[in-house]
Amino acid sequence: MTEPNLPEKEEFKARLEKARQRQEENSWDGSLRAERAGAAGRAWRLSVEIIAAFLVCGWLGWLLDNWLDTRPVFLLVFVVLGMIVGVYNVFKVAKAMNPDDFKD
Amino acid sequence: MAEGHSPLAQFEIKRLVEMNVGGVDVSFTNSSLFMIIVIAAITLFLTLSMRGRAMVPGRMQSMAELSYEFIANMLKENVGSEGRKYFPFIFSVFMFVLFCNLIGMIPYSFTVTSHIIVTFGLAATVFVTVTLVGIFRHGFKFLSFFVPSDVPAVLLVLLVPIEIISYFVRPISLSVRLFANMLAGHTLLKVFGAFVIALSWWGGWVPLAFITALTGLEFLVAFLQAYVFAILSCLYLNDAIHLHH
């Protein structure tokens, strides 16, 4: 048995990697299969998404108010923004969870 | 005795070895101790169980192989073949969170993940790593991640700030989810434990039965939250690598 020379080996390696990638891409249908597994996991993802956006935006508004001495203008603006971001995030996550339901 | 009655006493940080570096308190606490225990437990579990290297794995070896394959498949399904090189990162995060949660279930132990600063540290590490991966891979094109596709230009003025905020909310939502679960679960166990004592032998059986069921649920939560933490890290990584929503 002779040792295959190096360039041939490299080329084979590249072809193997390409084939492997193609096979993996075909087997992945774009939806998050594992995500669907746990209902509790899903519920936690969605609920915390709203609360976190609300908290972060409220905190940001409060910081801006303290900094610019404009209480409570920015707090109110950012709390409303936080609600919008929260709902927007939930919409995005829900879309990723059930891509079929969002097709027109 | 008195300090043991508060359901929140179990989360107290105690300084075991006082240390001070340049005015900053870096004491070795019970939290640090349990982090070291967790790291030691993971290392022992993985090395000892794989020492046999049997073709047909025994009980411990198949548990180690199962956790490896679990994360490997998670990366393959959610990130694709490019995710393979980030396996060590995701695997370390998953095992650390899982073992913190599980060791916290041992009575009289300390749950490291019930403190938001710890979970935030983990989430921030994931967030910074993933952002750096995105920037190094795509350069300035990474910013296109904040511009949603197929949206009219008028709406972009509104949507781009929302996208940017929602990106920076990620480490908070990631850390709050884990921390809130652990804190709530362990507090509830302690509260119902107090009910058992308060109602004594004639009425304590009801909360005792409830605690038993709740303990089972807490083990489930320990696994589930480690899983959710790891899979969200994978999804964020996928966003950074493929730049699509």
Automatic annotation (TrEMBL), chain A:
Membrane spanning segments where? Answer: 43-61, 73-91
- Presence of the UniProt keyword Transmembrane in the record: yes
> Does this entry carry the keyword Membrane?
yes
Keywords attached to this Swiss-Prot or TrEMBL record, sorted alphabetically, are:
Hydrogen ion transport, Ion transport, Membrane, Transmembrane, Transmembrane helix, Transport
Fetch the Pfam families from UniProt. Answer: ATPase_gene1 (PF09527)
Which protein family is named in the record? Belongs to the bacterial AtpI family.
Q: What does this protein do, in the record's words?
A: A possible function for this protein is to guide the assembly of the membrane sector of the ATPase enzyme complex.
According to UniProt, the name of this protein is ATP synthase protein I
Taxonomic path: Bacteria, Pseudomonadati, Pseudomonadota, Alphaproteobacteria, Sneathiellales
Automatic annotation (TrEMBL), chain B:
Which keywords accompany this UniProt record? ATP synthesis, Cell membrane, CF(0), Hydrogen ion transport, Ion transport, Membrane, Transmembrane, Transmembrane helix, Transport
Q: Which residues cross the membrane?
A: 32-50, 86-110, 116-136, 143-169, 189-212, 219-238
Pfam families per the UniProt record, alphabetical: ATP-synt_A (PF00119)
SUPFAM superfamilies to which the protein is assigned, alphabetical: F1F0 ATP synthase subunit A
InterPro entries cross-referenced by the UniProt entry: ATP_synth_F0_asu, ATP_synth_F0_asu_AS, ATP_synth_F0_asu_bact/mt, F0_ATP_A_sf
Predominant cellular place of this UniProt entry's protein:
membrane
Instruction: Report the membrane topology from the UniProt record.
Output: Multi-pass membrane protein
**Record PROSITE patterns:** ATPASE_A
Role this protein plays: Key component of the proton channel; it plays a direct role in the translocation of protons across the membrane.
* Entry similarity comment: Belongs to the ATPase A chain family.
- List the PANTHER family hit by this protein, alphabetically: ATP SYNTHASE SUBUNIT A
Q: What is this protein called?
A: ATP synthase subunit a
Report the gene name. Answer: atpB
